[in-house]
Amino acid sequence: MLVSIGSTNPTKINAVKSALQIIGLEYDLVAVSVSSGVSNQPFCDETFVGARNRAIRSLLEAHADLGIGIEGGICVEKNRLVAFAVVYAVNKNGKENFAKSASFTLPAKIAELIYRGIELGSATDLAFSTHDSKHKSGAVGILTKYIDRTRLYVDPVIMALYPFYNSID
């Protein structure tokens, strides 16, 4: 089975590889650089749109059997800025499913930068004097010290894929 992912970000690619190995799916994976079609820092429902766009665009560009899109986003919950990810899976027959990752609150110094228009990865780098954190452990890794972006994404990839490997319908 040819599986495409709508990103060349190593953390997203590794999450998809791990998820596919966990569920025991035989696959060839191709990473495709595609536009999410949403802002650089998606808010709330825009995150779902970006993940779906990435899945569909990668599926079409790679002529894959299954396309996966992962999009990180932020939203306000209980007066706090919260980060999360959305994973979409779409097959060549048009069947779709999605899942959302665990979410985590962002500290005030990152939230202030985001409210000034800076994307989460760049805000994290500025707040913690790091470089290119979104291609590494990300804000979640820096904040928790135990859960990096790859780990955060693995479970929602599995959850988004269940209709494609577990025929329960």
UniProtKB/TrEMBL annotation:
Similarity-based family: Belongs to the YjjX NTPase family.
A Gene Ontology biological process term: thiamine metabolic process
GO function term, MF aspect, one: metal ion binding
Residue ranges of every copy of the Non-canonical purine NTP phosphatase/PRRC1 domain listed in the record: 6-165
Keyword Manganese: yes
InterPro entries, alphabetized: ITPase-like_fam, Non_canon_purine_NTPase, NTPase/PRRC1, YjjX_NTPase
Keywords recorded for this protein, A-Z: Hydrolase, Magnesium, Manganese, Metal-binding, Nucleotide metabolism, Nucleotide-binding
Enzyme class, UniProt record, top EC level: hydrolase
EC number(s) given by UniProt: 3.6.1.73
HAMAP family registered for this protein in UniProt: Non_canon_purine_NTPase_YjjX
Record's subunit section: Homodimer.
Taxonomic superkingdom: Archaea
Protein name, per record: Probable inosine/xanthosine triphosphatase
Originating species: Acidianus brierleyi
Catalytic activity reported: XTP + H2O = XDP + phosphate + H(+); ITP + H2O = IDP + phosphate + H(+)
Role, per record: Phosphatase that hydrolyzes non-canonical purine nucleotides such as XTP and ITP to their respective diphosphate derivatives. Probably excludes non-canonical purines from DNA/RNA precursor pool, thus preventing their incorporation into DNA/RNA and avoiding chromosomal lesions.
UniProt: substrate binding residues: 7-12
Cofactor notes: Binds 1 divalent metal cation per subunit; can use either Mg(2+) or Mn(2+).
Pfam families hit by this protein: NTPase_I-T
Cofactor: Mn(2+); Mg(2+)
